[in-house]
Amino acid sequence: MSLAPPRMAPLLHRLAGMTRRGAVHATLLLVGAVWLVPTLGLFVTSWRPSADVAASGWWTALPGGTFTAGNYREVLTVRGFEISLLNSVLIALPATLLPIVFAAPAAYALAWHRFRGRRFAFLAVVALLVVPLQLTWVPILKLFNLLGLTGSFVGIWLAHTAFGLPFAIFLLHDFMAELPGAVFESARIDGASELRLFLTIVLPLSTPALASLAIFQFVWVWNDLINALIFLQDRGKYPLTAAIQGLLSSYGSEWHLLAAGSFVSMSVPLLVFVALQRHFIRGLTAGAVKG
Amino acid sequence: MFLAPAAVLLLVFFMHPTLQTIWWSFHGGIGLEPSRFVGADNYVRLLTGDPLFLNLEVWPPSGALVNNLLWLALFTLSPLGLGLSIAVLADGVRYERTLKAVIFLPMVISATAASVIFRFVYSPDPTIGILNAVLGALFPWLEPVPWLGRRSVVNFALIGAAVWIWTGLATTVLSAAYKALDREVLEAANVDGAGPWRTFWRVALPMLAGPIAFVAIALVINGLKMLELVLVMTAGGPRGASRIIGFTVYWEMFNNSRAGYGSAVAVVMLLLLVPVIAVQLRRVGREER
């Protein structure tokens, strides 16, 4: 009897610890479920026949439901998502490459060339990072109308290039500023021109930043809806995001097609994310202030 | 010159359009070409004569501006609180990487796809909307709620979807920062008898001020620019109840074809962002030198 209290105390302590750990795990698993279930629902729905989607919830279909690739086939071929998929690629690839081509030399100059107004120019870039695109749309659209660029891929490439520039310069500047200046000096002493120095030394050394930037910009353009709506204005040229929105406003209740179409659009960034997770998170995190 | 090409693009696509939009915000008329100079009329109407933008006649006040203030509060604080809790609770748990990847996933997909996902989640249709299905299972007497169709809840429903998207950012940044904290300082505080709770609030949290500020700024900027989520999920409806500023600019310019009026809303948006720009310039300026 007298032995009981000293033995009880550690037991209670351990019980309390286990309860606390159990509560933590339960909370974390609940959070994981809340974050996974919405996407899972869309995924399951995208594989269910339309009659089933209308008859029962997707959560009842997991054991023993029927699944089909028919929704994907219909949305791609009958509803024109094939063309939108191609458009998304045709828009996103140049709109990823061009901002880097413009930003890299500018970032290098801002980081390493001494000239008057350098600091001001850099701070202007930082300020532009926050300026909303809302302030630029109508004037740019009018300019495009004037030049015949509205509804053309060239127009949207130019727009995405300019819109991506402030962040691209900012990210590359941060990285390039940390490069070892002594290397540049010795290259200059060896008689390398500025252009040569930039192409053969600065760019190769900046590969990690260039990769993060490329991934961020690609996903940003791929996921863009609003600029496509404003500057393309042509269903035949719409990327996947705009095609989804079109499907939504014209056939609001075709859930099975919406689900399949959305997954076609999501699959590309999801693949990039899985394949290049580290670069991806670095780029997206740095770009979060871009908005 | 290395700078010239980028500088030209920024001048043509940012500086000049911004100035032009400010100038046009003092003009009225229909279409892309606001022709008639109307002075400050747009601004006066926006703040006093447009109940969809600001309505102080009712209680609680309503309109896009009020909605956006609610966004700023909830959309900033919720991901921060969630992200911080997850970062600390999941630290060292066996499935930590998987959990954080799952939470980051919504950051990867488009706002359009996220909107479709949440139109499913929120649907009052009993075979589609899982939120109503779960609530109905827990509380059988509840009627399914049309989350996006009811004026009193639609704004919160949209913020909920946005929190789902952006918590991944907060979790990733804060988790990395938490892991980088000096363990010895934390343990010393614990040994001194501060206890885990006090250690967290008094020692760990102040050490995380920098990353928290970074996430908060990112959320404020995105909360003020938010547009696609609203456009695809509700198009500002029902009857304008889920309008916010970024959406209103687009809607007035391109749906209602009132470029001058839309420009005025855009300028209001810019003015709200000026303090954020100032903060950013100070942060970056400090690092520079």
Tell me the major beta sheet of chain B.
2 strands, antiparallel
Element pattern of chain B in H and E: HEEHHHHHHHHHHH
Q: In what order do the strands lie side by side in the largest sheet of chain B?
A: 1-2
C-alpha Rg of chain A, in Å?
26 Å
Number of strands of chain A: 0
Distance between the termini of chain B: 25 Å
How much is the average pLDDT of chain A?
89
- State the fourth-level CATH superfamily of the largest domain in chain A: MetI-like
Assign a percent range to the helix content of chain A: over 70%
Total strand count of chain B, please? Answer: 2
Largest beta-sheet details of chain A: none
What's the number of structural domains of chain A? 2
Percentage of residues in DSSP E strands of chain A: under 5%
Mean pLDDT of chain B: 92
Largest interface, counted by CB within 8 Å of the partner chain's CB: A-B, 96 and 90 residues
Helix/strand-derived class of chain B?
A: mainly alpha
Approximately how much helix is present in the residues of chain B? over 70%
List strands and helices in order, with pairings.
The complex is a heterodimer of chains A (291) and B (289).
Chain A: H1 4-46, H2 50-55, H3 70-78, H4 81-112, H5 118-130, H6 137-147, H7 153-176, H8 181-189, H9 194-205, H10 207-223, H11 226-231, H12 240-250, H13 255-275, H14 277-286
Helix pairs in contact in A: 1-13, 3-13, 4-7, 4-10, 4-12, 5-7, 7-10, 8-9, 10-14, 12-13, 13-14
Chain B: H1 4-24, E1 27-28, E2 36-37, H2 41-48, H3 64-89, H4 96-108, H5 111-122, H6 130-138, H7 154-180, H8 183-207, H9 209-225, H10 228-233, H11 245-255, H12 259-288
Antiparallel strand pairs in B: 1-2
Helix pairs in contact in B: 3-7, 3-9, 4-7, 7-9, 9-12, 11-12
